[in-house]
Amino acid sequence: MFAINRHKRLKNLINFRKYVENNVRYFAAKLKDPEVTIPFANGRNLTISTGQYARMADGCAVATIGDTSVMVTVVSKTKSSSAGFLPLVVDYRQKSAAAGRIPTNFLRRELGPSEREILTSRLIDRSLRPLFPDNYNYETQLVCNMLAVDGINSPDVASINAASAALSLSDIPWNGPIGAVRVGLIDTEMIVNPTRKELQQSGLNLIVSATKRNLVVMLEGNADNILHQDLSKAIKLGTKEVQHIVNGIEELQKSFGMPKRILEVPQVLSAEIYEALRSLSEMRVKEIFKNYTLDKLERDNALNNIRMDVLDKIRQSFPDVDLNLLQDGYNKLVKSIFRELIFEEEKRCDGRQFDDIRNISCKVNMYKPLHGSAMFQRGQTQVFCTVTLDSHESAMKLDPMAILTGGVKEKNFFLHYEFPPFATKETGKIGPLGRREMGHGALAEKGLIPTVPHEYPFTIRLTSEVLESNGSSSMASVCGGSLALMDAGVPVNAAAAGVAIGLVTKYDEDKKNVTDYRVLTDLLGIEDYMGDMDFKVAGTKKGFTALQADIKIPGLPLKIVMEAIEKASDAKKTILGIMSDCLSKPRSDKKENWPVCKKLEVEAHKRARLLGIGGINLKKLFAETGVQVSQIDDTTFQIFAPSQNAMDEGEEIITKLLNAERAPELEFGGIYPAKIVELRDIGVMVTLYPGMPPALLHNSQLDQRKVAHPTALGLDVGQELQVKYFGRDPVSGLMRLSRKVLQR
């Protein structure tokens, strides 16, 4: 008994010692404030610290660039969810207090997430998700909390690095760290992490997320028609600079990181069941993928029929099998077969070669009432785009935080993207845009902005509605949107097109590298779902305007990234050639319903005639004709009319206002004839000159005697009186007139 108790005490002592050794780094982080500073080539530094805030979270880190600081916390549940995927949620919020501002809404507090916050959340999510283990299905949340914003350095890149550090320092299994930098291009000089002012002058805004060994994890950017060689140089520079951040986070992790939690061993199908699953479905699935005549719906229906048949037979033979496990096993088997066939057949499931583009058809000028319209069809992806032109008053006004972090006060060009459920033969609620739709629309907008002239006199609203979808609907929106802009007569500097590039790899999990791969041009929906990359690229014939890379494996070598850009460049030129056959340049012949805009120079002394008291003339003009007049500077006005007829009518009214006789200047104390135009209980309304607004001559000023009503003096409409002018009332601005002072 004594020996047994001694053995237990010794075992407990050993376990306690292991516990202390495993957590010594964690306790060290609690006792002091560790941080690491990463210098960049341009002399700017990034500081990452931990151990100060949110100690109950699984991980917490603060990233600081200049005077901009972002705190990111991560918490992951310890119990696996029933979902067959990683339920990762990233919440990025821009706090007005961090910039010393008060929200401008009625409640004066932060409400729902803005578009910029949602897009930044997606940016962080896409940088982190590829490095989680395949079997990690634990609910995980990252919260990015802005502590301070200096208005000079952008907080989005700092948030990615802080999120990487928080995950690395936590006990959550994650194959990081990663780092992220923004690359700009001013003239011919590449700048790492440019300031907001520098970014406004930059022809490139590229964010590169990468891990060690120069493996790219995520790309996102827009450019002003950047050349191929400059884009490649920027990606290589960003990947190189990221290595300093990765090394700094690893240093922090070695000193203060917590031991990673041990995952539950996931349940797998027995060898017998898996073999039965393979034998019942492999040949049938291969036949479907080799049948190049099937379209999206026919292929999906055929695979679904096989799935139902195979699962029923398996459950008859193995009644105790877990249905969710069985379905997951079938899905993985189909994905494996799909990928193997690409390497074996050197063809894709629709019969195309790797570089082939689906059949494309275009139409413009679809409906007469629209300012501009286009239909773009690529395979089974179809988008309908419309352009609406309006005055500058319709420009999108941004909130103060978006102005502070983005540097743009208003947008006179914006794209709205819609993806209704019928586009994929589904039912669902149509309502506010989801994060995915918002991201696709923002990417298409970035691809078209560089082609639209900066000093265009109209506000442009471009809508893109996806009517059919089988992959790459956002890039189809770039193509259709460019055609619609030209159909609306917008003088774009060049047509723009977009294409999605895919990838299928053979990945060595032990060595963590790609052993073989195939790059796929013009991605199908199924190739996106079962592949390893969705690289969207948009641009003109000259260069690139936008790109976004979603990578599903833990890092992609630069060689494959460069090859994908090369394939995208070739495909882009082919698509632009097809679009040119439909419409090669902006429409020059005007449509009847196009709005008209003109500038009007008004002499300073005539400005009051145009405006009227309190702007009454302009309000009346808009109500009668729909013509809007807005002031640019002291003597320059801009006239907007919804049509040429409205412009002609508005110009006629404006000419009359400007050429109207100028009101005579009345002298204080002067005596003038006044014509009665109306009788009232309190007095008479008189005019002193033609075109004058009637002024009140009060009963108390009509006669030396007390007058109850003007008729007591025998006054009537049209009668003339002599009155004396005493200027205007300093409060009300009304004329002060008197008749009785002349009777003395």
- Total DSSP helices: 16
Task: Provide the gyration radius in Å.
Answer: 35 Å
Pick out the low-confidence regions: 13-22, 24-32
What topology, given as strand order, has the largest sheet? Answer: 8-7-9-10-21-20-18-19
Shape call: elongated
Count of discrete structural domains: 6
Q: Give the mean pLDDT.
A: 88
Structural class: alpha+beta
Give the name of the CATH architecture of the largest domain: 2-Layer Sandwich
Strand residues, percent: 25-35%
CATH T-level fold name of the largest domain: Ribosomal Protein S5, domain 2
Biggest sheet record: 8 strands, antiparallel
Please name the fourth-level CATH homologous superfamily of the largest domain: GHMP Kinase, N-terminal domain
